[in-house]
C-alpha cells in the first residue's frame, strides 16, 4: 500500500503537470499579429513616454547593468520609446527598431535629447531589414513577451549579430513567488488581449528553444526580472 505522502506527491506532480500544460495551451492560443501589436502600442505610446521617470526608478538599475557595456554598433530591437538609450555607452552607434510608429516618434526625441549618434526605423523584429552580421551588440528589453513568434525574432537577432558579438536581453518572467505567479496566471489572458504582452512567459526557455547559447542568466525581484547574455551560434 502506498503511503499518504506518496499519494500527495503524486497528486502534486499531476497538478503541476496540468498547470504547465494549461499554460502552454493558453500561450499557443494567444498570438496577436504584428499589426495588432503595433495598434496596441500606438494607443499607449504617449502614456509610456510620460512614465519614463517611473521606469528609471523601477527598471533603470537593471537596464544599466545589462546594457552599460554594450559596445560597437548596437541594435535595440523593439526599442519602444527609447528607454534603453540613456544606459548605452556614449561611444556606441545606436540603431533602434520598433513595430510602432508612435513609439518611434518618442524614441527619436530621446536620441536627440541625449545627443546620441543613432537612428530609429519602423520594422518587424521577425523580419529585420539588415544584412547578416551588421551589429556588434544586439539588445532588447521586455520584448520577447510581445513578439507573435519569439523564436523567429530571436533567430533574426542572431542573424544580424556578428559571430563574435553579444545578444543582451532584459525580460520579465513568471515569478518564483507563488502568490505573484498566481496573480500573473490569473491576469495573463486579459493582459495579453489588452496589451499584447504575455505576462507569465518564460524568456530563458524561449531563448533555449531558439538554440542561442546562453552565457549567463540572472533573476531578480522575486524572479520577476531576468537578464540573459547569449551569443550567436
TrEMBL record:
Keyword Methyltransferase annotated: yes
Keywords: Methyltransferase, Transferase
Every Methyltransferase type domain range: 75-168
Superkingdom per UniProt: Archaea
GO process terms (BP): methylation
PANTHER family xrefs: METHYLTRANSFERASE, METHYLTRANSFERASE DOMAIN-CONTAINING PROTEIN
The protein's name in its UniProt record: Class I SAM-dependent methyltransferase
Species the sequence originates in: Natrinema versiforme
